[in-house]
Amino acid sequence: MLASVLVNSIYEMKNYPVVLLNTVLAPLSFLIVITFVSRGQLIGEAIEGGFIMSMFQSGMSLQGDLSHLKNDFKLQDMVVSSPTSPGAYVTGMALGEIIYSLPALAVLTVLAAVYIHPGVFESLELLGVFLLMFLGSVAMGFTLSTFSSDIVQSFAFSRLISTVFATLPPVYYPITYIPLPFRYAAYLSPTTYAAEIAQSATGLVQLSATDVFTAWTILIAVSLFLFLIAAKKSRWRDP
């Protein structure tokens, strides 16, 4: 796992620090736009949306990194022939993605402390939501990487999925801003439920206990389903 972290994050951060700009600018750019357009009224929702986008994109970035190491460096073939388990390998790579995203997460944490003021319980609830987003996207990224045969293809799928799940749904603003005919489509994305839980936990939107329970249930079920798909359908060994 330590080797995976070194390969997947520390090496790039040390030798190419400019790549960190992307991890910081991607979530913050949407935050700034939403804040300006709403004249500061949605800054809390935008900060939480930045967290969700950062965590989801971190997990999906695993697809491109794993595909690159598998197809270009044949690292997965070496790992398969070693005593290393898929779980240990992916866990190390996933930790590397989190470390890679630390600058963005640090900025968002400071903004959350200044503008949202979450208490201990609220912070734990937010942490649980963001971790579920990350773990679900890690499972999705790992599964897709085992089927990918080219790094360009992997990056294309990674960006497409990140856009569909982390940008188009109401992550940076309440779902009530979407007209009713289109609001139902937003509930097809698990990030919508994550945003509702986060916004409800910090008092930014008012949801009933039933709605919060339903959102948690769906979010956990989707994460478990993605892990089941990763365990059953991913190609760890070439046929």
Detailed description of the structure:
The structure is a single chain. The chain has eleven helices and no strands. With 239 residues, the protein is mostly helical. It has one domain. The longest helix has 29 residues, at 43-71. It is globular. The two termini are 26 Å apart. The mean pLDDT is 86.
Compute the separation of the termini in Å: 26 Å
Tally of domains = 1
In percent, how much strand structure appears in the residues? under 5%
Q: Which structural class is indicated by helix and strand composition?
A: mainly alpha
Provide the helix percentage. Answer: over 70%
Number of strands: 0
State the helix count: 11
Q: What is the alpha-carbon Rg in Å?
A: 18 Å
The low-pLDDT segments are none
Task: Write the H/E string, N to C.
Answer: HHHHHHHHHHH
Overall average residue pLDDT: 86
**Main sheet overview:** none
Shape: globular
Features:
single chain; 239 residues; mainly alpha; 11 helices; globular
In short:
It contains eleven helices and no strands.
Please specify the SSE layout and strand pairing.
Elements: H1 2-15, H2 20-37, H3 43-71, H4 75-80, H5 86-100, H6 102-115, H7 120-147, H8 151-166, H9 180-186, H10 190-201, H11 209-233
Helix pairs in contact: 1-5, 2-3, 2-6, 3-5, 3-6, 3-7, 3-8, 3-10, 7-10, 7-11, 10-11
